[in-house]
Every structure is written in structure tokens, then in C-alpha cells.
């Protein structure tokens, strides 16, 4: 039989399929998320001291600029005066949160917040500071409790009691600042009214002297 040379035998090459880029990417599966985008760390909570310091700094800044809405520079100054660890945006959000909590307290009866008008623009509703609020309607007396049931006192160790006391301190600090600002505004209005009355009296006195002089000259001319 004839002998065949092994070098002359042609071996078939394996076929390779080339997929489009989109199909190749979908076949490989979705890309794994980066390690740095795992979970965002929440900002640190506000301490009672930082909340009270923010309330005082916010009140002082509003009294200094003399307007209700603060600018970005004003909020930066409030953050620097209250606590260096918080940004101006965090301080602004904290004040807005205190405003919402105060409004929710006003909708429900709360003896601690009675008589405190806070975080509202005093210039937007001047009638509230001048006209006294009407007395509430008389409600029927509740039935007297039985001697066996004792009234439970609030425990300072209970959850939420410390947070409410912090809000009350912040509300009281800003409320005292608003009261001082309103008293200053009323004093300035009284001083301006007094000066206008003095100027009007001086003008009338000058007119009277001028009229007396003219009458005297006319009388002298007739004589």
C-alpha cells in the first residue's frame, strides 16, 4: 500500500463565533458595582448643646440682618457660630425641622409651649403681637378621677423625653430673641412718632411768629 506523509495532512481549524459588542456584554452579565458605592453613611445626630447653640446663633443672625429670610452667607455665619462640625445646609434643615415640629405642637395642646411665638416672621403678622388672643371657650369640667387611679408622672428616662426638652429649650431661646426684637421695633416707632410731633409743633410755632410779624407791620402802616 502507498505511504502517506503526515506533514501533508490538513487538520481543520476550530470555528470561532464573533458576537456583537451588545450581545457580548449581556452574555458576560451586569457589571459589579464599585466598592466605594456600597452604602452612604448618615450624618451624625444633633446633640442638645448643638441644638441650643444653633437656636441662639440663628436668632442673633436674624436680629442682626433685620429680615426673615437669610442668605447663604448668613447661614454660613450661623453654622460657624453654632457648631463647626455642621455645614450651613445642615443647620438650615435643622431649623426647618424645628419649625415643623413647633407647628405640630401648636395643633395639639401642649402646656409647655403656651405663650411662645417662635420661628415665625414677626413682620408678616403684626396684629398677632399687638392684639391679645381671644380666650378659649369654656369647656365642661372633666369628671373627677377616682382615688384608686393615680396620675402617672413623666419619667425623665423614657425615650423621647430628652428630645422634647431640647426642642423646648431651642424654642424658648429663639422666642426670647423675637420678643426682644419686637420690643425694639415698638420703641423705635414711638420715638419716630415723638420726633414727628415735635417737628410739627415747631412748624406751627414758626408760622405763628410769621403771622404775628405781618399783622404788626400792617397795623404800623395803617397808623
Automatic annotation (TrEMBL):
Pfam family for this entry, one: Myb_DNA-bind_4
Positions of the UniProt region annotated as Disordered: 1-44, 81-165
Family annotation (InterPro entries): ASIL1/2-like, Myb_DNA-bind_4, SANT/Myb
Compositional bias (Basic residues): 89-109
Pro residues compositional bias, start-end: 132-146
Chain intervals with Low complexity compositional bias: 12-23, 121-131
Domain of life: Eukaryota
Sequence ranges assigned to domain Myb-like in this UniProt record: 46-99
Protein's recorded name: Predicted protein
Amino acid at each position: 500500500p502507498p505511504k502517506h506523509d503526515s506533514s501533508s495532512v490538513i487538520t481543520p481549524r476550530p470555528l470561532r463565533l464573533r458576537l456583537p459588542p451588545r450581545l457580548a456584554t449581556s452574555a458576560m452579565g451586569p457589571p459589579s458595582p464599585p466598592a466605594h458605592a456600597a452604602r452612604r453613611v448618615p450624618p451624625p445626630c444633633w446633640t442638645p448643646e448643638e441644638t441650643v447653640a444653633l437656636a441662639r446663633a440663628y436668632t442673633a443672625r436674624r436680629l442682626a440682618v433685620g429680615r426673615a429670610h437669610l442668605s447663604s452667607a448668613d447661614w454660613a455665619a450661623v453654622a460657624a457660630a453654632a457648631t463647626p462640625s455642621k455645614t450651613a445646609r445642615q443647620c438650615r434643615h435643622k431649623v426647618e425641622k424645628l419649625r415643623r415640629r413647633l407647628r405640630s405642637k401648636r395643633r395639639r395642646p401642649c402646656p409647655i409651649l403656651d405663650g411662645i411665638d417662635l420661628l415665625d416672621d414677626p413682620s408678616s403678622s403684626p396684629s398677632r403681637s399687638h392684639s391679645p388672643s381671644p380666650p378659649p371657650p369654656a369647656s365642661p369640667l372633666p369628671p373627677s378621677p377616682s382615688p384608686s387611679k393615680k396620675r402617672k408622672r413623666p419619667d425623665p428616662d423614657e425615650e423621647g423625653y430628652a428630645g422634647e426638652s431640647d426642642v423646648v429649650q431651642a424654642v424658648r431661646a429663639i422666642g426670647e430673641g423675637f420678643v426682644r426684637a419686637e420690643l425694639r421695633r415698638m420703641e423705635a416707632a414711638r420715638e419716630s412718632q415723638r420726633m414727628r410731633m415735635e417737628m410739627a409743633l415747631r412748624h406751627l410755632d414758626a408760622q405763628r411768629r410769621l403771622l404775628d410779624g405781618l399783622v404788626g407791620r400792617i397795623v404800623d402802616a395803617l397808623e
